[in-house]
Amino acid sequence: MQQDSGKGRQEVSLVGRILSLETMLLLMGVASLVYGIVNGVETSILWGVVIIPGVFILMKVRKKDWQKHWQDLEAEQKAHGGQKNPPSDPPREK
Question: N or C: which end of the chain has fewer CB within 10 A?
Fold first, then answer.
């Protein structure tokens, strides 16, 4: 039965990746580019040419940011001895 739950998680992960923001942006860029080429609309071609490389840049930046975030978080946890303390509120001024 554990195989079924693992397979279900893989399917959810696959659906999540397919319907991700980056995928939708890429499809929008390709659709805009194709529409512009077919109908001769320069503005749509421009948007397609801007969106498609922008998606790849976004994916690269997000991947680097998440890797750095997790490294920083692990370093912070090691520095605090692995304790999870909620952040304290700064004192209010009267």
Answer: C
> pLDDT tens digits, residue range 13-36?
766 766 688 888 999 999 999 999
**Number of domains the chain contains:** 1
State which amino acid sits at residue 76.
Answer: E
Tell me, yes or no, whether 33 lies in a domain: yes
**Listed residue (49, 64, 71, 61) closest to 22, CA to CA:** 61
Q: For residue 82, tell me if it sits in a domain.
A: no
- Confidence (pTM): 0.54
- Whether 55 is covered by a domain: the verdict is yes
